[in-house]
Amino acid sequence: MTAAVIAAGLLIGTVQQTGLPLQDPLNWWLYMLETESETMLPGTFPLVDSRFLNDENSSTGSPGSIERFLFSRSGSPIGYWQESPAFSLTGTVAGEVLNYGGCFETRTGATARLFIDILPGLYLDERLSIWTGSDEKEPDYFSPYHEGMERGRHLYVDWGYLRWNNEIVSLSFGRIPRRWGPGRYTQLLISDNSPPLDMLKIQFNLLHTLVFTGFTSTVDSDSGTYLTAHRLDISPRENLRIGLCESILFKAEGLDFAYMNPVIPWYPVQWNERVDDNAFFSFDVSWKPFRGIETYGELLIDDIQYENTGDRPNKLGWTAGLSAYINPLDLGTVIEYTRIDRYVYGQRKPCNFYLHHGEIIGSALGPLAFQPDQPCKSGSYIPGFEL
User: Fold this and answer.
1) For residue 173, what are the β-bridge partners?
2) Do residues 158 and 263 share a domain?
3) Which residues pair with 296 in a beta bridge?
4) How many separate domains does the chain show?
5) Quick one: 244 and 350 in the same domain?
6) Is residue 221's pLDDT more than 50?
């Protein structure tokens, strides 16, 4: 008897932050801004849409709603979103001492971040981090990825990319953080659960109601594994955003332009021209019935048995959430529920599991019903699941 196993999180939290989290240039306050204000943000991050950087009707380059909001809560300029200064070098030092029943462990780390406004519309953003821990664990908010072959200090390129953008198009190249969808705690298709991907990314802003985003990235360049994804954000009303997404993880000996073409649907290509590539669809919606309240949801389709001949289960995931912002108290509250069916993100060939450096590219709540280190062999099956 085949059953679906629920990987679910009922995550309820009250958030009141006085600064910006270290680990992520996209942070809680961006989501809180969307709930608190009349602004509906794009569904992909990091944010590059110039409409939200500066006031649309301003000719002075004065800060826009996002920059003003972040400035008011951090007490310092946010170089990641602002267009000036043209050059900035910032750093952070952190340390922890933990007591485990009389056994003390220490962890320390530091970051260095470089931001250069090279030309009008062209900038460089890069951050390095280094940390060490007596228990081989990273300090809070430091990346645990790429820990190296030896114990001791760990040096990591958190991100580093060039981006050129104007009001219509944005082009980015490098190691880029990413997060798609409205989920505050987790996103089902594209999340920041795994390290930033090395990618080529393009985004078009069309008529202020349509935003198209697409990228091609390497997941494991040594083995020729790639991830491509594209997304269309539709904003029929100022308080409503609808997102339609598709992604596919595949292996190729060289460049596969059928999948690297961002403007065609990939499912017919995978179904008719390829074998055993890992394809996904997702649909999400965010709606603000009035200022200070936002409802949102996301549906992930890994596999749906519309012609089921072997009693195979569907592989689906979904999220539903409610975000509230109480302006007088400067307090944000989020209630979010996520369910992910068994074997979502897995696939017939282990090399096509939806993983990057051993971490799920989608939600961290995804089931661990597969072993990422198995070699890619024809006929390799997910343990316990007959395909």
Assistant:
1) 162, 200
2) no
3) 286, 321
4) 2
5) yes
6) yes
Residue range 35-57: mean pLDDT, rounded: 66
In the three-class reduction of DSSP (H, G, I as helix; E, B as strand; rest coil), residue 69 is classed as helix
**Torsion sign over Cα 96, 18, 141, 90:** negative
Report if residue 58 sits inside a domain.
no
Residue type, 85: P
Find out whether 235 and 38 touch, Cβ atoms under 8 Å.
Answer: no
- In whole angstroms, give the CA distance from residue 112 to residue 89: 7
Q: What is the pLDDT of residue 384?
A: 31
Identify whether the C-beta of residue 28 lies closer than 8 Å to the C-beta of residue 332. yes
Q: Residue 11 and residue 27: Cα distance in Å, rounded?
A: 17
| Contact call for residues 277 and 249 (beta carbons, < 8 A) | yes
pLDDT digits (tens, 9 = 90+) for 87-119: 788 888 888 888 888 888 999 989 888 888 888
Contact criterion met (CB below 8 Å) for 164 and 173? no
User: E-strand spans in 134-259?
Assistant: 154-165, 169-176, 179-180, 197-206, 210-220, 225-237, 240-251
Judge if 243 and 96 occupy the same domain: no
What residue type is 210 in one-letter code? L
Q: Tell me if 78 is assigned to some domain.
A: no
Same domain, 263 and 362: yes
Q: Is the pLDDT of residue 222 over 80?
A: no
Buried b (16+ CB within 10 A) or exposed e, 95-126: eeeeeeeeeeeebbbbbebebbbeeebebebb
